[in-house]
Amino acid sequence: MEFVFYAVPALIMTGAVLMAVTVIRRSLDVRRAWNSGLTAEARCLRSYTTIGGGGGDTSVSTTLHHVYEFMTRDGRTIRFEEPNGPATVVEGDIVTVHYTADRPEKATAHAPRRGVLVAGTVFVLAFCSVVILFCVGFMVGFHAFSSEWNSVRTGGDEFAGAGLPF
User: How far is CA 142 from CA 138, 147, 150, in A?
Assistant: First the structure.
């Protein structure tokens, strides 16, 4: 049953690492689109919200998504979806999108705000790092406690304790 005390933190750490990788990739995609200098007029085809969280005492979060379509300079029609867009953009609106020539499907309709992008990315990475460090600390602490406890059960030295209140 002890494996649960290692498996659950490992699963949480895996989720934190995946979140960090996703945020870094999206941040790099947006930065490349802004730096490419390529823009196009895009039409908002659809906007919708998704609801996450909730239940019990947890808060509910909503995310506004937009689906855009635009034509690249070489005549290709590109459709992409982007979360966290402005609530003022509705179906049929025309917005400026930034894209790269080699990957136009990674376009963004967000206006260039490099400081906000960096700050958001750093915040999420710091949060993920704290989660990972907490999980590693928990696993190390549990290992030390269970090793000490097992030595007492098998006739080792007197239990010195691991600083736990029980």
Answer: 6, 8, 12
Residue 164 CB coordination number (10 Å): 7
Give residue 161's Cα distance to chain centre. 38
Cα distance between residue 158 and residue 148, in whole Å: 9
Q: What is the DSSP letter of 75?
A: S
**Which strand ranges, in their side-by-side order, compose the sheet holding 77-83?**
77-83, 60-71, 38-53, 94-99
* Better-predicted residue by pLDDT, 49 or 157: 49
Q: Are the CB atoms for 85 and 66 separated by under 8 Å?
A: yes
The most confident of 4-8, 95-99, 141-145, by mean pLDDT: 95-99
**In 10 A of CB 42, how many CB atoms?**
23
Q: Tokens 């999108």 — which residue?
A: 97
Alpha-carbon distance 23 to 19, whole Å?
6
Q: Collect all residues with Cβ–Cβ distance below 8 Å to 66 and sequence separation of at least 6.
A: 44, 46, 47, 81, 82, 85, 89, 109
- Whole-angstrom CA distances from 44 to 3, 97, 100, 141 are 49, 11, 19, 52
- 107-145: pLDDT as tens digits: 999 999 999 999 999 999 999 999 999 999 999 999 888
Q: What is the pTM of this model?
A: 0.77
